[in-house]
Structures are given as structure tokens and as C-alpha cells.
Amino acid sequence: MISNLIKLNEYEEAKKVFHIINSDEEDVVCLFVGGCVRDLLFDKELSDIDFATSLEPEQVKNKLNKSNITYDDTFEKYGSIKVFINNKFFEVNTLRKDFNEDGRHASVMFTKDWRQDALRRDFTINSIYCDLDGRVYDPFKGVDDIKNGYIKFIGDPAKRIKEDYLRALRYFRFHIQFSKHDHEEYVLKYISQNQDNIENLSKERLIGEMSKILISGLGYKLFSNNFSKDLFLSVYKGIKYLTRLEFKRKKRILKKEVDWVVLISLLLIDQTRNFERFVKDFHLSNEIKNRLNNLQLQFTFKTTDTIEKIENLKKAVLKYGVASVIDFIHFQYLVNEKYHYDLYESNLKVIKETKPPEFKFDANILIKKGFKEDANLGNAINFLKQRWVANNYEIRDKDIDDAIQLFK
């Protein structure tokens, strides 16, 4: 397990940051910390890589400047410098002690004490520090908890949850991924006591946490436990179709390219406009709203038990665009147990390479037939485009006659 940490040497940009911050120092002043250490110990693929350092932000910036490394110091007062190398970014955070905690608005005091920095972290599995040689500093025995499958708060769970109510949801995210044990009743008790506060967290933070849960591919575990099921249904009002997340039981393979928007759509999309309330309540962007809208428009009562033919998918590209049809292929594969993986891959490949013909129609044809340049002309052209798609990209004389009869 510990030997997995050596894999950090494979991440060249992160390795470079480590060496830059530690350069010209008698002792190690910068270590890897948090999720990257935890995930490697669990033999999981890394997403974010963070560093902790006993140097203050100004010292960190001086070293980065000497090496001509780009960085963002927007959150310098919190001890955080974001470093950019080759389109990858890493956070370098100065060791700190939080005091006057109030959710995310704790006052910050920098420190040289690594244990003091570890004390402010949420779970033992997230408070493990290491270097490139795989040597660890583990003040709260997080490595043992990883081996034994325990998700433990650092210190009093009631106090840690009160400091930041999002930790309650993070607890469930880590539990479904790493725990080998049932929930401790006293932890559930503290979470239950703070349900209103959890629901009142910012919509952005709630969606951020849900997206991480969904991408783990293990969200179904939340809904196999009555407590977490009731909590999440209350916090994320509007989600339904929980069994659609049972990828393992349905033998569905969750591809890395499937993002959280497709996964949240599994809990929302049906033949109704149910998703619109969720979009409004959680202040989702117009881009996400449009993606969900196009998925809903492609959904039919047959979506979950029949497989859309490639000819129909190609036609759908004309109406919804390549990206939206790819979303639908992911959606249908994940909800339809009859959809074989090889066909899924094949359909994705075909649609990604699809360049639909361009609809071209000379509006003067209709104008010569007596149309004016108004809404009726636009409606007639839209009608002809629909016929063009239905007729395999051909407009017949009959279609023009029908357009004249309907809209002139």
C-alpha cells in the first residue's frame, strides 16, 4: 500500500513543484497531502494533487518566480497559491491553524507545526503527508484507517460538522468509496441534528459535492441505506430513479468521459419536465440546462428498454448537435441493460465522426409562391427542414406544396 506513493514520481509537473519548493532548504518544507495521498494508498487514479508547506506564501512565490513558474495568488491570505505548469495546476498551501471557525469563514494563522495543520483537516484519511520517496507523516493513523476501512473524523465529529456542514456530505462520499463498516450511530446523530444547516449550504457547494459522488460511480450505495437515502432526497429535492445508478448490478461500465451532468440526468430525466425545477433550485447554468433539455427531448418511454438505431442517432445530430446525441448515447447505455458495450462504443465512434449535411433551401422559392418575409416564411422553412431530415436529406415537390398549404 505505502509503495503506491512512489507513483507520484510519474507526475512530472507535480514532481517539479515538489523540487522547486524544497530547493535550497536544509529540511523538507513541502509534502504531498490530502486526496492524492489517500487515493494512491487506495490504488485509485489521481485527480487533484495538493501540497502543504511550512513556507509562507511570499516565500513560495519567490521560489516560483525564480523558476519562472506561473501562479495565482488570489487566495494568498488563506495561505493558498495555485501553481500552473503545462496546463496542469496544483495548490500549494501553507501550514495553518484555523480559529474562530464559522463554516468556511475561519480566521487563519500560519504555523510551522505540521500536526497543527493536520488538526484542522476533516478526516484521518485526508491528513496523511508524504514525499516522493513514499515516506509518510501520519499524525492520526490515517494509513491504518485506510487499511481497516474506517472513516473517522479528526477530533469531535459534532465540532467538525459544525465548523463546516458540508463535511457531513463528504463523510458519506468517503464512506461509500472506502469504508468496510456500518455507520457509527453517534455520527448519524450529529448529522441528523444539522440537517437544516446542511440543506441551507450554498447551492454551488451542494452541487459540487453531488458531482464528486456521482463521478465515483458508487452513488447507488447512498440509496441502499435508509438514513443517507432520506438525507440526500431531502437535500437534493427532485432527484428520482435511484436504481439507475446501480451500474455494477446492471454490468454497466462507467467511462471516464461521462461527466456529472449526464450522471445527474439519470436521476432527473423522464417524459416530463421534472428536471426544470431542479435546474432552477440549484441555480444550474444555461449550458447545463440546455444539455438536460436536449436529453429530455430525446427521451421516450422506449429509451430504457430498446436501443436507438444508428440511423436515428445520425438524424438526431441535425436537430440537437453531436454533443447532445453523445450525451443521449451515454444516458441510454447506462439505463438500458440490453445495450451491449461493443455497440455502445461503436455508436459513440460513429456519432463523434458524424458531419451532418447542411440544410440549404432557397427562400425565394417560397417568396415566388406568394410568401412574405415574415413568421410564416420562417415556419414554412422549419417545416421543410423537418421533412428534409425525414426524407434522408431530400426535399420533394410535395413537401413544398404542403408547406405552402399549411403556412401561406
Describe the 3D structure:
The protein is α+β, with helices and mostly antiparallel strands and 408 residues long. The chain folds into four domains: 1-148, Beta Polymerase, domain 2, CATH 3.30.460.10; 152-236; 242-356, no CATH class; 364-407, no CATH class. Helices cover 47% and strands 9% of the residues. It contains 20 helices and nine strands. The protein has helices spanning 12-22, 35-41, 57-66, 114-119, 142-148, 157-163, 166-178, 185-193, 195-199, 203-215, 226-235, 260-266, 275-281, 286-298, 310-320, 322-335, 341-352, 364-367, 375-390, 397-407; strands spanning 30-33, 50-53, 70-72, 80-85, 88-94, 96-99, 107-110, 129-130, 136-137. The strands form two sheets. A seven-stranded mixed sheet has the order 3-4-5-2-1-8-9. Strand 4 and strand 5 (88-94) form a beta hairpin. The radius of gyration is 27 Å and the shape is elongated. The mean pLDDT is 93.
Q: Oligomeric status of the shown chains?
A: single chain
Spatial shape: elongated
CATH superfamily of the largest domain: Beta Polymerase, domain 2
SSE pattern: HEHEHEEEEEHEEHHHHHHHHHHHHHHHH
Provide the gyration radius in Å: 27 Å
Helix and strand composition category: alpha+beta
Distance between the termini: 74 Å
Mean pLDDT: 93
- What would you say the CATH architecture of the largest domain is? 2-Layer Sandwich
Major sheet characteristics: 7 strands, mixed
In short:
The protein has 408 residues and is of the alpha+beta class. The protein contains 20 helices and nine strands.
What descriptive keywords fit this protein?
single chain, alpha+beta, Beta Polymerase, domain 2, 4 domains, 7-stranded mixed beta sheet, two-stranded antiparallel ribbon, 9 strands
